[in-house]
Amino acid sequence: MFFNQPYHKRKLSSTRKPKKTWRVQNRKKVKGATLCLCLNIGTDPPDVRKPDPSAILQCWINPISMNEPQALVEIGNALENQYKRWQPKIPYKKCLDPSVESLKEACTRTSRSIGNGRSLFHYNGTGVPKPTRNRELWVFNQNYTQYIPLSIYELLSWLGRSSICIMDCANADLISEPFIQSQTETQPQSDYILLAPCQQEEELPTNAKLPADLFTCCLTTPIKISLRLHAGLSLHRTLLPDLPIEKLDNIQGHFSDRNSPLGELNWIFTSITDMIAWSSFPKELFKKLYRDDLLIAALFRNFLLASRIMRNFGCTPFSVPSLPPTHQHPLWKTWDLALDICISQFPDKNTSENRPYKFNSFFQDQLIAFESWLTSGTELQFGVGQLPIILQLLLSQNYRKHALLLLVKFLDLGKWAVKKALTVGIFPYVLMLLPTQDFELKMILITIWGKILTYDQKCQEDLVREKGYIHFISTLSNPQLSPENFASTALVISLLQDNYLEGKIKCHRSHLLNICLPKLDEQSPIVHQWACLCLSKLMEGYDEAKYSALVDGISDKFFRFLKDPIPIVRACAVYGLSNIIYENRTQETRTSEELRMSISLLAIANDGSPLVRKELLVMLTKLVCFYSDKIKDIAMDIDYELGKLENNKQEIQYDHNSTIFSMIWKSLVSFTLDPDEEIEQLAKQFIQKLKIYWFPNHSHLFKSKDDGTINYLKKELKNQDLSNNSNTLQPINKSNRKLKTSTTFRKTTPRSLTEIFSPNAKKSKDSFQEINEKNKTIENIDLEHEKEPKTKPNIVSPKNPIKKKFLTPKKAESTQSIIYHENENDKVQKTHSSKLEPLRSNLFDMCVDTFNVPQEYTSNNSNLIRSYQEKHQNQNQNQNQNQNQNKNNNKKKKKKRKMRDINSIMKTKQAMINDMKVYSSQKKKQQITESCSVMDNQTKKVTSIIFHPFEPFLFSIDGRNTIRIWDWTVNPGKSIKKFENGNSGKSRLSFLSLVNEYDSGLIMTGSTDGIVKIWDTFLMNNRDEQPKMVSAWRSFPYLEEKSTSKDSRCVFDWNPDNGFVSVFGENRAIKIWDVNTEIEYQTLPSNCEQRLTSLKHDPQDKNILFGGSYNGRFLVYDLRDKRSTSLKFAFSEHKSRIINICKQKGDENTLITGSSAGVIKFWDFRYPQPVKTLNLHNSLTALEMSDYAPLIASAVKNDNVSILNTNGELMGKIGYYDAFIVQKFGLFYAINFHPYQLYLAATSDSLISVFMPAYLKKN
């Protein structure tokens, strides 16, 4: 598989988009409470008629059992203690049977003490009249002789702008209007929350078996009221007749102890109510009510229980904001089951009180349910009901590991899953667990933090504030860390530093540099990649870290990776080197190290990976921005000198090839000719912005393409020497780090940039020694010359108007040219123009996204889930086996197509071998002359065609720029897709092949200018999607097609066995490109006086390459020999241009060659001469051999296609009239056999015809 890495499937210019925040906005915590109890014990209100007996308990206290003042105090203290369970530290103001004045004083004190927080107001009005229609509550006068009305608006003004009110009174709906208004206003001035027990015209329950403040009991003591009501049902009274209800109040344990019966029951209740709210409420409302404040969350959990209980007694509790009804939610049955299990274990007179308590299997069952959903229902984003329980289980040491593993699997589903997890409240849990000492848990947590920081980088502040970075760096320093775990940890630390200076400072002071630098010397590519990225993020925008890194020799380590076989590692090395550049220094204080490093990086400008070239382009734009003034004059001089050459002016007096800045500028301009469309557009856009920045008053003179500079660059790069080859790139020599300066430029013409720094240049020493010894130009370069005004005048080129305004008047008079001086408006506009920004690299974003893909835990965490289930869930073994089987089935589905293709290959191949025996005896069956499909390419001539081996697709290219995909199984053939290759200038398509035909089916194209492009046509996934360029590179630097001949300037061959692309180009050189590494593997001299016209790899030996030349020589190369002696054999049997070289995959010895004179020669490597020669007595235009069938097809000029066997015997002919009902005379430009079936495609002009044997057509 080639070109199957994640970065091949993503645009180079795409970046991670910021996501909407998941945090609760304007969080307000309860900071004070006022408890108002209007009980008036012993006196019933006048508008309420109570039965006898009636409910009398208040906060589970019987007020009749003591005197009235004492009972009132006890009830107030009991209510305060119930609230202190959730908020023990806030001040509580108790108002017991208050007057208006005392209530106002308590409320205003609370309002002043909370600041920007929220206040709690609890009102128990069971001892006063009902609220009035005027929205008034009732309190007492100072002598307790009258009921005094109190407006709800006045009360809210005392409480402040933010409060939560619990109104435990009848007809509470009458006072809800101000609360509703605060929630519906577009710009609310207040934020009020209301919880009330009943609607208008509804009465509070008065059943003697219930407490008088039933709503308050549900809100403050949910476990106690649930057990009492559940145990009081007739069914339980029948099953447990001897169980006293009061005994349920003494359930063992504490709320905070989850290993006790009471703690477990409370834990289950919290989880169930969270699940009900999560699955029923809008997510924003869930965050506000359940993740804003601990007390508010507890009250709303308990409110769900109150809504369920009180409906059984004729009350309909309501809230503001309004909540969806949840009293019939199916999870309440789970709560009933938990109560049943708990009550059934209470001892009676027949059981011992010391029997062990059997804990509930609720959480184990929920884990199994969540894992089942992850296995089978991951495509449904709404089925995440157990997610709140997963968070609850993180608090339990027994369930934590299993819950974390399931959480990671859930987060692997995508960014939507991360958003849901953050919304439900994962963040404080995983932050709290960071100090864990368990290595497995720590690595799982690091993976989770990688997902979180990828989704929301603002979590950096939380990690720095809580010192979480210390735990990550300590993990990174573990010498036993595996490469995968190192990459996960480095990812989190890199995200922690991304665009966050405080994070960089903390990591640098924690010795991150000393930890990561030794990792660059290890052997793992993933360690190299993430060590580079981690160090790059540390240095990016942080000069102190850059200085320390340079002192430690980081640049030398990065330079070693510029020839790494992994493209992503090379790109990360370039990314790291670009971040070493000091961004905050002035031009005068910049180090020579930066410039020397920049020159060495230019050597990889011809890298085969667009990913690497994009990073180099980004670095060049940084240098241009930082040295804008110096490069500005050099860029104009290059254009000016070209203008003199074009207009036959006087000789050039100054040559800026010797300056580092001219090298940077010409390399930047060269990217406007990059074969990758994205890189080309980025370079053009930056140069356009750069010129407008330089000359804001002359922006109308600029076009999107600098043709003069580009043509100048082409002329220079065309003449580079390709005779020497070296794949070594040396780092900077520390002895040559200081630049020697001079006040003048050298006037000698140096070697070109590409000749010195190209991968093909001969380098016995490092790059700078090469320059210093052979050119002596950089040694005398003047890096300070731009500070002084130029005194020597330049000649004005009439084609360069911008140049004119920088000339002196004296020189202008001598040249009789109009001079434009830089006026004040130019200076002012340039001063106020926006800052020139370099291109932004998205390499880090790409690496983060590709690393955060679903992972199978097969290393340190292997079989962790399975072992956990075997330990704690033996009773569910069968179910777990079914889940594992489903997981395996999903993997099999992904490989189904590949397995089918492999089986198809084997069956078809064996069938072809069997058919060969039939062909030897029945010649008529070999006559592939029956046309089964004809396709019209309209007016464009088809020059190359190829079958897809397993799908009904045929690919074609014309002699220009168009690629077509056809369905040849219908007649006439149907065009499925058509797209342009994006050739530049006069170049044209000349080569077509398939890559990964067993899987995705990529298309490889080659152009006459040496550019190779890889296209994904999405035929296997989505035929409606437009083709996407996967990769592209330039085999030879800037070849320009000028010839009008039909022969291709560059000749290509693709070897799928080893992933080599062989390209013959100028200077009689053959370049071998390795698509596995996306770099040039080697350069071979053709050792032929004429250019090659055909290249073909040996299907049996991947190290053998055949070549055919224009003068008829047949050449054999050995790729293992990288010297000039790689040519092993040269045969001169042909006297004219070789059209093609063919060799069967199933035959180790037989090979044929065909020349334009119509001569076909059969070769056997066991003999030095051809074993057979066949003369067609006509000009040969195309030659092809079947991969497995003993058939050869040859096309001759103005005649027909002949079908021969491997013995040279004629098996049939395809006449011109047989397939193409057009003019009589024409040429067959291309022919191609189907790899595994007896089909032949042939092209003539714009028509494509597919032929088959007659007996197959009858069948």
UniProtKB/TrEMBL annotation:
Q: What keywords were assigned to this record? A: Repeat, WD repeat
Bias (Basic residues) ranges: 7-21, 889-899
Compositionally biased residues, Low complexity: 874-888
Q: Name one GO cellular component term.
A: TORC1 complex
- Location of the Raptor N-terminal CASPase-like domain: 27-180
- Pfam families reported in the protein's UniProt record: Raptor_N, WD40
Region annotation (Disordered) maps to 1-21, 723-745, 871-902
For bias type Polar residues, the affected ranges are 723-734
Q: List the SUPFAM superfamilies hit by this protein, alphabetically.
A: ARM repeat, WD40 repeat-like
Q: Name one GO molecular function term.
A: protein-macromolecule adaptor activity
Its Gene Ontology biological processes? cellular response to amino acid stimulus; cellular response to starvation; positive regulation of cell growth; regulation of autophagy; TOR signaling
UniProt WD repeat ranges: 935-967, 999-1016, 1131-1173
Family, similarity comment = Belongs to the WD repeat RAPTOR family.
Under the heading PANTHER family, the entry gives: REGULATORY-ASSOCIATED PROTEIN OF MTOR (PTHR12848)
Please state what the protein is called.
Regulatory-associated protein of mtor
